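Q: My labmate handed me this sequence with no annotations at all. I'd like to see what the chain might look like in three dimensions before we decide whether it's worth expressing. Could you predict it?
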Amino acid sequence: MTQTPDYKLRAEHSAHRAKPELAIHGGTPAKQNPDPPMYPGGMAIAEEEEQAVLDVLRAKRLFRYYGPDEASSKVSELEQAFAEKKGARHAIAVTSGTAALTCGLQGIGIGPGDEVIVPAYTWIASAAAVIAVGGIPVIAEVDETLLLDPIDVERKITPYTKAIMPVHMRGAPCRMDELMAVANKRGLKVIEDVAQANGASYKGRSLGTFGDVGCFSLQFNKIITSGEGGMVLTDDQKTWKRTHMYHDVIGAFKLEFEADELLCGVNYRMPELLAAVALVQLRRLDGLLDDMRQRKRMLKAGIEDVAQRRRIGFRELADPEGDTAIATIFFMDSPAKAAAVAEALQAENIGAGVLYTPDQIDYHVYAHWVPIINQRTWTAAGGPWRWAKREIEYRPDMCPRSLDLLARAVHLNISPLLTNEDVEETIEGLNRVLDVIA
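A: Here is what I predict for the chain of 438 residues:
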């Protein structure tokens, strides 16, 4: 006989006893302690990372290409380990996720006047990287996955579109089959932004390996971290060479590229100290994912009944098995209801929020990208919109479906540090709030 999990029995039991008063109305919070900080890899930093840094310092090998002795480069080790982990031919370690996107865009040949389709929901760096290489971000709607809508992508393609940028926001995979089909049909490049979804997959294949390039961030908020840093993946030899030359003007000579291939690059090399930390963190990735996935399963099972009863829909997942489980997101039937639920959950000591509020600036939502919406440039004569091959217009209301979904979306982080008691109390608080307010 299949045994009902304890946490679900408790949820069912609580649904039948007298409903306690919500904390927002003066009751006792369901959760004893606030959520732990949502820095999965950062909070896992321990003696192994310390030792890795000390090893580099003691070897005095602080620069990738040389030091006083023959110690190996931690950056080179990281590139090899990361490529093997993801199943890619090449990996390039850079200074940040934004640097990864910028270098990747140079790698696939995006330049002045080229249009790149980006989602309405992503950190502004996704669009800013396009601008940095002279390209023009074209903003497309997200769907119920809160990720790039393949149907709207196809609507936004023009003769000047050169690439699509799927962004795997909040740890979940985009609809990669549909997006790759559109790209292949229209002859477009694909650059994946995997900053928030390190370790996620789609139909068993690692994100970052579908497109021409895949770009990752190791910034402190990300699943694994070296404080700052980024990675670029590609299987294509020409793309790797171009990306490598752009990120490291020295590396092109070290690798003895042919003279007629050489292009002038800059310096986005990852430092050895960051790579030492990232190598340890990479070994922690699977454990962090396992912990978050277990907690998310518990949480969703514990509120399943109230969600069905109140007709609350969860964020759609293109591949539930590939989700990193860093968040649980569900939709209310109006922005006002979402705001009320989030406020009540916060009173229960549950860290909840709404993904879009019009009067709160958040660079994750295109409507708040003021420098881009207003096409501001560093000089009067420069900037990609001066090089556009057609008139480009942005409006804060240009993606109404995205704004509606985000405004109705209630978001909860799923920390790997949540104890079983934390999860049980979170379930209790969610059931209380949703049963009263939803």
